[in-house]
Fold this sequence. Notes:
255 residues; Rhomboid-like fold
Amino acid sequence: xxxxxxxxxxxxxxxxxxxxxxxxxxxxxxxxxxxxxxxxxxxxxxxxxxxxxxxxxxxxxxxxxxxxxxxxxxxxxxxxxxxxxxxxxxxxxxxxxxxxxxxxxxxxxxxxxxxxxxxxxxxxxxxxxxxxxxxxxxxxxxxxxxxxxxxxxxxxxxxxxxxxxxxxxxxxxxxxxxxxxxxxxxxxxxxxxxxxxxxxxxxxxxxxxxxxxxxxxxxxxxxxxxxxxxxxxxxxxxxxxxxxxxxxxxxxxxx
Length: 255
């Protein structure tokens, strides 16, 4: 694990533990349990291959072939070697943990629908070869976390997007055919799917916080167009005094 990835783990840990949360950002064991299980299954499948001498490459995506469609569901769990598996495991765990913390409302949908769409798009556009590995899902998560924060314009999510760019921005180059033997088509499919889902779920979960001004008495002195409206002063009500009659008794009258 590189130093940058270690810092990223520390950054996510601080966010999860110390960030002031609300109902939308509430800690749950699911944040770590599901990513851990996902990565564990990848390593368990690879262990089975090594232990029994099996080769699961035939379960990868084979483009434009009906039997190759099984790879849409199976290919993320198959890896060529230990380096391939490790390089996918670290970003997969970190990005999926981000997904289940910041986007828990749509996290399962992004993983399931996004994984299927990524596999189908790979099946359509890729070269005729077996495409294996969870890198398509990694690019899906990278793309979704990156663009969702920017689209939603929430300062917490934008911060996560910038950290994602800083640590994993170099991944963008691998959506191009610059390295032989790498499924750049799977990477590109994941990137495109992530952007599409970020747009689709832009109004789900945490959205941009809008500041609302509270009205004061001074604000009530203006109409909607900003024109001054003088306050209405109630006229004082004059009270009519009842006529009081006085009777004077003179001293001579008393005698």
